[in-house]
Specification:
Layout (H helix, E strand, L loop, with lengths): L2 E5 L9 H13 L6 E5 L14 H15 L3 E5 L9 H7 L2 E3 L3 E5 L2 E6 L9 H10 L2 H8 L3 H20 L10 H11 L3 E4 L6 E4 L5 E4 L6 E8 L8 E7 L3
Parallel strand pairs: 1-2, 2-3, 3-4, 6-7, 7-9
Antiparallel strand pairs: 1-10, 5-6, 8-9, 10-11
Helix pairs in contact: 1-2, 2-3
């Protein structure tokens, strides 16, 4: 098997059992056909600590572990919703935690992987907020709170974020070309794969570069295939499928 799969922005939550069912079908039917699965963040709607995993989280971890045990390597990168996922979850799920950004090599292709939120540099307010949340001391203090308080805080932050998005122009919440070019230059690669913006598309850039945006799972599920057996111009394929209610 020379295929690798990429997914992001599933926002898994008990409140969307249709997406959970679609993901579990994907794990049974499509994921085992690949040598590796890369999850590029916002896998869960929110995460308040490995120490408060419940039955739902264990179910998802078990599906990942089953895939990993079958021979498909599973990699996970933090998103802006689930950046507190830690070593305990990864051990249970049998997945390897990747830093954001990461450069990987698949066959003849060197690829830059990112969640994508750090590329939205025009949104100055979000970038400041992101810096606070990613501070190690802030995270340590949050994880020391009772589970109920952490859960309420996470829900409030999510609701505030969704409300703020209603007042922002779409262009402000997208990546900036300058940030993309800088990231590719620093990584010295020609292909960037990311999620976060929910705008699934394969963008051709200048100088034979490309930016591949993964789709979010809502009415449709999305995954990207990289097949090293195909010619370079056919190596990536974006797939979507309906999520049944």
């Amino acid at each position: 098997m020379l295929r690798s799969l990429f997914i992001s922005d599933l926002h898994l939550t008990p409140g969307r059992p249709d997406i959970t069912r679609a993901f579990l079908r994907f794990m049974e039917q499509e994921a085992p056909t690949a040598q590796s699965l890369y999850i590029l963040g916002d896998f869960f709607e929110y995460w308040i600590g490995d120490d408060v995993m419940d039955e739902f989280h264990h179910q998802i971890a078990a599906a990942l572990r089953k895939l990993s045990d079958s021979g498909t390597s599973v990699y996970f990168m933090h998103g802006n919703r689930d950046f507190l996922i830690g070593k305990a979850f990864c051990r249970e799920a049998g997945c390897t935690l990747l830093p954001d950004p990461s450069v990987i090599t698949l066959g003849n292709d060197d690829l830059l992987l990112m969640h994508g939120d750090s590329l939205c540099t025009s949104d100055k307010g979000y970038m400041r907020f992101r810096k606070v949340l990613r501070n190690a001391l802030v995270q340590k203090l949050f994880l020391s709170l009772p589970a109920s308080r952490r859960r309420n805080t996470a829900r409030k932050l999510r609701d505030n974020s969704m409300a703020a998005m209603q007042d922002k122009p779409m262009s402000l919440m997208d990546v900036t070309p300058e940030a993309v070019e800088q990231a590719l230059d620093q990584a010295r690669v020609s292909t960037l794969i990311h999620g976060h913006t929910h705008r699934a598309h394969i963008h051709a850039l200048e100088n034979q570069r490309q930016r591949i945006v993964l789709g979010d799972w809502d009415k449709l599920g999305w995954y990207l295939i990289h097949d090293d057996q195909k010619p370079a111009h056919e190596r990536f394929e974006m797939i979507n499928f309906p999520i049944a209610s």
